[in-house]
Amino acid sequence: MSIYTVVEHSELNEYLKGYDIGTLTGFKGIEAGVENTNYFVSTTEGEFVLTLVESVSAADLPFILGFVAHLSARGVAVAQPIRNQQGELFGELKQKPAVFMKRLAGDPLDKPDNVQCEVIGLTLAQAHLVAVELPADAYQNIYHWCRNLSEKVLPELDEEQAGQLAAAVQAAGDLPWSELPSGPVHADLFPDNALFDGHNLAGLIDFYHACSTAYLYDLAVTLNAWCFDEEKQFYDTDKEQLLLAGYESVRPLSGQERQCLPAMKRVAALRFWLSRLRDTLFPKEGELITVKDPEGKRQLLTFLENQG
Ligand SMILES: Nc1ncnc2c1ncn2[C@@H]1O[C@H](COP(=O)(O)OP(=O)(O)O)[C@@H](O)[C@H]1O
Ligand SMILES: N[C@@H](CCOP(=O)(O)O)C(=O)O
């Protein structure tokens, strides 16, 4: 559980006065999540999720929440952000940017099945098609991001891991980033960021990694997260084929994207190995904090490197 910032009843009551979503009847810290503080909030008007955003600054939120609001308005299955009485998508509570979203009915997935993989592939492609309508603001060069973080992390690693990390960062720089179709993407579409009710997708959540970058990177992150079982060290090719088929039923990959996909899956593995290393080696302070094991992503990278 990650609750970095504790909110009192009176503080939430006061904050709710800036919204037209009823008065407070109850609230509870959420026992999942890694990077932000989340509460389930019940009011006389319905069920909501309050997020105190810890992972990005307020300056990033117009892009992130504008992207989610656009997806929602265009009918992509995402949690709907709530505007306050000033028409803004976020305010401030406990000196943190604070966001209300409608609470979705489903549950986050742990181990997705084949049908859920196909559904997520299709939904991801719908998001990419609609994202094309937005300006590609907040461009993130994933290679530079990895290179910068690797400089901080490398001195802490043993020789073998440092060698693997440095080689993977160099390989990430070899991809033709500027030639690949790019736009706003989720960038963290793990199964715990998709709420399902059986095979019905209630919606995608947690857009706080959203940025503009190659759509293929977003697809690679999603493939790795949905098809690789970190405990069993098993990349499920049936799931991969179904996820890709779902995706390409809406947005077929170009020849270049298809050719770059194996290398991009290695970049995606590297990206999350690095962020988990950072969170383990340099933990944030907080009341109750979940840190995911970096080793699973290093093993995924090794698996993908051995595949060639
Ligand atoms: N709109 C929503 N509807 C229902 N549950 C939600 C919603 N947003 C977040 N949650 C719950 O909160 C948990 C943590 O949210 P998440 O955005 O993944 O946090 P973090 O950014 O800290 O990783 C989710 O796993 C889910 O249980
Ligand atoms: N998905 C990332 C961690 C980011 O946390 P999230 O809860 O915001 O998705 C990982 O698995 O390393």
Number of strands: 12
Quickly count the helices.
Answer: 9
Shape: globular
Largest sheet, in brief, is:
5 strands, antiparallel
Strand order within the widest beta sheet: 1-2-3-5-4
Q: Output the CATH topology of the largest domain.
A: Aminoglycoside 3'-phosphotransferase, Chain: A, domain 2
| Number of spatially distinct domains | 2
Ligand species: adenosine-5'-diphosphate, the ligand N[C@@H](CCOP(=O)(O)O)C(=O)O
The helix fraction, in percent, is 40-55%
Measure the end-to-end span.
37 Å
Pathway: Amino-acid biosynthesis; L-threonine biosynthesis; L-threonine from L-aspartate: step 4/5
GO biological process, one term: threonine biosynthetic process
Protein name: Homoserine kinase
EC number: 2.7.1.39
Question: What do these coordinates show?
Answer:
- Keywords: Amino-acid biosynthesis, ATP-binding, Kinase, Nucleotide-binding, Threonine biosynthesis, Transferase.
- One of its GO terms (biological process) is threonine biosynthetic process.
- The protein is an alpha+beta fold.
- It has two domains: 9-103, Phosphorylase Kinase, domain 1 (2-Layer Sandwich), CATH 3.30.200; 108-307, Aminoglycoside phosphotransferase (APH), C-terminal lobe (Aminoglycoside 3'-phosphotransferase, Chain: A, domain 2, Alpha-Beta Complex).
- Helices cover 43% and strands 17% of the residues.
- It is built from nine helices and twelve strands.
- The protein has helices at 9-16, 61-73, 114-131, 142-153, 159-172, 215-227, 237-248, 255-281, 294-307; strands spanning 24-29, 37-43, 46-52, 91-93, 96-102, 107-108, 182-185, 194-197, 200-204, 211-214, 228-229, 234-235.
- The protein has a five-stranded antiparallel sheet with strand order 1-2-3-5-4, with helices on one face. The chain has a three-stranded antiparallel sheet with strand order 6-8-9, covered by helices on one side. A two-stranded antiparallel ribbon has the order 7-10.
- Strand 2 (37-43) and strand 3 form a beta hairpin.
- Helix 3 packs parallel to helix 7.
- The longest helix has 27 residues, at 255-281.
- It is globular and about 55 Å long.
- The model has no long low-confidence stretch (mean pLDDT 95).
